[in-house]
Amino acid sequence: MSTEKASHEGAKTDHTEYIAHIESNGSSEATERALVRKIDLFLLPTIWLMYLLSYVDRTNIGNAKIAGMQADLQLSSGQYSIALIVFFISYVLFEVPSNLILSTSRPSVFLPTIMVLWGTVTCCMAAVKSYRQLVALRFVVGVLEAGFAPGVLLILSSWYKREEQSKRFAVYISAAILSGAFGGLLAGAITKDLEGAHGIRGWRWLFIVEGAASIGWACIARFLLLDFPLTSKYLSEDERRLASERLLVTEGSRASDGYRLGPLQAIKRSLSNWRVWLFTAGYMVIVGSSTLSYFYPTLVQGLGYKSNKAQYMTVPIYAVAFVCNAFTGYFSDKVPRHRGIIISSWLSISLTCSIATTIVTNFTARYVLLVLMTAGLWSSNALSLSFASSSFASMNREARAVSLAFVNAMGNLAQIYGAYLFPSEDAPRYIMGFSVVSAMCAFGVGVYGSLWQVARRGLLE
User: What are the b/e assignments for 395-406, b being 16+ CB within 10 Å?
Assistant: First the structure.
């Protein structure tokens, strides 16, 4: 009997034992709901704040630039762009290796450790004296943060059933949305209030404060994060068993986690799966379109708002996206096989708004279109991740780790070319940028529409 066949037979045996375990111990749906609430309590707040701080640490360079870093380091526009892009180069390159390490280690140790390290490097950025030092540290931060996002995807896919994942991924992504809404305002307060304190420039204090916050929360997270279902010390033996075996009801072959794949085997198993490539193409489209978030202040200024008001007018954009993301996550778990058409619908709205933005001249109307377009992209982002995660559920843990990291890594390639979509000379209509976004959204509608048809036939399970 082959290893996979044996694993499949093992899954059937474990499922039978699971049913017997429930009957013999008088377990019920109420018991399982209580366990899920306990898992939520440990995982979601901890991961949410970790992601919020990681997002702040990767984007604070933009706020530092405005606060005087570019002038102090005498950075040209091209040098600043390289400092931005080098983060994503190392980030993309190290996602898959990091997730392979995580799949064979303890998340409660691995994730806080890399967070302490990237927080430390962020603090060190306060001491940079030259362009080369800045680029080197940005590269290192990318290496260290590379393990976090795909690691969270692996953890969530290891604890929750298919029909439970959309809400949890929506919670996870909401951290990035709120970071976008208030990160700039917080950075402005730090750089203004601490400017010159102890003879240190405000932008240098920004790196110190936000890096220290990451270090502090990582130390706390070490005692809150759960490991994998069968190894988490915060659960009793019965809870660990239930947490693991309840997934067999819908993820039948999860017993395959009982054997291990080597790194090359896991990569081969993952990249030979057609589902991985379809989800990768779809996610690249969503993240590529979402790169316009880096230009919200610029775009809002181009719509007629000036200076500080432009910064404040970006907050409603994120606020609406936050609400739409929450509702989408909640209702998508009720119809898990229809995630594809929900994503296609949101991308269709974003496509329509993107095209209209280049045609409409009224500033207020263009602002409303930008709000709706952003809501569609952020809602699609969270749902696409939960859709991919649930579709990879039957994979061995190592193969699932590679698949999730690959999808996330290829999606983040868009951060590199997306930095050039909205040059200032294209203001106020930004025809090139919105044309590219429109094309990507149209492609995404087709990809997720196809995945919806496949999911309806049960071919993604």
Answer: bbbbbbbbbbbb
End-to-end C-alpha distance for the chain, whole angstroms? 23
What's the pTM value of the predicted model, to 2 decimals? 0.85
Q: What is the mean pLDDT of residues 259-283?
A: 91
Q: In whole angstroms, what is the distance from residue 88 CA to residue 438 CA?
A: 24
Give kind and range of the element (H or E) at residue 206: helix 202-221
284 contacts: CB under 8 Å, gap ≥ 6: 410, 411, 413, 414
pLDDT category at 251 given cuts 50, 70, 90 is low
Q: What is the pLDDT of residues 335-367, one digit of tens each?
A: 988 999 999 999 999 999 999 988 888 888 888
DSSP 331-398: HHTTSGGGHHHHHHHHHHHHHHHHHHHHH---HHHHHHHHHHHHHHHHHHHHHHHHHHHHHTTTS-HH
Q: Pick the closest to residue 194 from 202, 186, 185 (CA basis).
A: 202
User: What's the length of the chain?
Assistant: 461
Q: What is the mean pLDDT of residues 279-291?
A: 91
Cβ atoms of 394 and 275 within 8 Å: the answer is no
Whole-angstrom distance, CA of residue 95 vs CA of residue 150: 7
Instruction: Quickly list DSSP for 169-187.
Output: HHHHHHHHHHHHHHHHHHH
Is the distance from CB of 247 to CB of 254 less than 8 angstroms? Answer: yes
Task: Tell me how far apart the alpha carbons of residues 221 and 96 are, in angstroms, rounded to a whole number.
Answer: 23
| Average pLDDT taken over every residue of the chain | 86
- Give tens-digit pLDDT for 167-187: 999 999 999 998 887 887 788
Question: Within a 10 A sphere around the Cβ of 450, how many other Cβ atoms?
Answer: 14
Task: Describe the crossing of helices 107-124 and 77-103 by its angle, rounded to 10 degrees.
Answer: 160
Token match 């790169």: residue?
A: 291
